[in-house]
Amino acid sequence: MKPLIVKVGGAFIGDAKAAKALLDVLAQLQKSRPVLLVHGGGPIVEEWMQALNLKTVKIDGLRVTTPEQMPYIVGALAGTANKQLVAQAIACGLNPVGLALTDGAMVNCQPMDAKYGAVGSVTPGNATLLKLLLSQDFLPVISSIGADQSGQLLNVNADQAATVMAQLLHAELLLLSDVAGVLDADKQLLSELSAAQIRELIDAGVIRDGMTVKVEAALAAAKDIGLPVTIASWKQPESLLRLADNQSAGTRIYPD
Ligand SMILES: Nc1ncnc2c1ncn2[C@@H]1O[C@H](COP(=O)(O)OP(=O)(O)O)[C@@H](O)[C@H]1O
Ligand SMILES: CC(=O)N[C@@H](CCC(=O)OP(=O)(O)O)C(=O)O
Fold it and tell me: Which of 14, 17, 166, 168 has the most CB atoms around it within 10 Å of its CB?
């Protein structure tokens, strides 16, 4: 069976109850298929920036990452957020291995436009390490910190990181957020979206901010792997069991 990649971000990181509920579901799913967890942690980074009196600037939903901020962003995402999830997974009886995009050459990472600072874009790399871990029923828990060929650390948007993992492993992808899925102008859930509808909703300003990055990443993955990608909420993890049964939850993004 195809591996399942679940991406969590936002307020999920740091919400112990939500983490337990989701990790219990992942433990169920792992009985029938390989599972990977990719995570962000924008709000933790935000907290650290505020505590340190450092300014946050975002362009197109991406955090402008200065050399001064980088050590804290790495600490918050690859350190605190990653190890917290690993510890919570242990408590749920899983066998997690905490990783970043830097490990096992799993991706190729290059700096994006200089206006973003140390922000990376990624393409699929080598799947050997991940396949080895999945073959032994480990749960890879992957943060979105990467590095380029010169050894420079780069901050990668976690939705983009999850997309590349799906491309690398030809896996099914679930992007979980704090909303039920993509909402229309009247805040109603859209159960499916095509590329053309996505363009219209972005142009009309209905899809904005972090959701723009998320739907674009979902569309790129759907096109590449030839499977719909689901955007749903981590607040209803039981809906993931429905998805495993091919029933709908959240918003399904179709390749065309
Ligand atoms: N059309 C939309 N439908 C749903 N959420 C949207 C939409 N447009 C913008 N958003 C915002 O995008 C957020 C999710 O993106 P983001 O904060 O990056 O999520 P995460 O941190 O979980 O990756 C939602 O909480 C919501 O505020
Ligand atoms: C370049 C960029 O924007 N990186 C993100 C990485 C974390 C992330 O994506 O977290 P969520 O999934 O919680 O949004 C950041 O620094 O916030």
Answer: 166
* 52 dihedral zone (left: phi>0; alpha: psi -120 to 50; beta): alpha
CATH number of 4-253: 3.40.1160.10
ipTM summary value? 0.96
Ligand 2 site, residue 41, Cβ cutoff 6 A: yes
Instruction: Give residue limits of the domains in the chain.
Output: 4-253
pLDDT tens digits, one per residue of 211-225: 999 999 999 999 999
DSSP, collapsed to helix, strand or coil, labels residue 119 as strand
Tens of pLDDT, residue by residue over 218-252, are: 999 999 999 999 999 999 888 787 776 666 789 99
Q: Give dist(CA 159, CA 168) in Å, integer.
A: 14
- CA 116 to ligand 2: nearest atom: 1
14 is in an annotated binding site: no
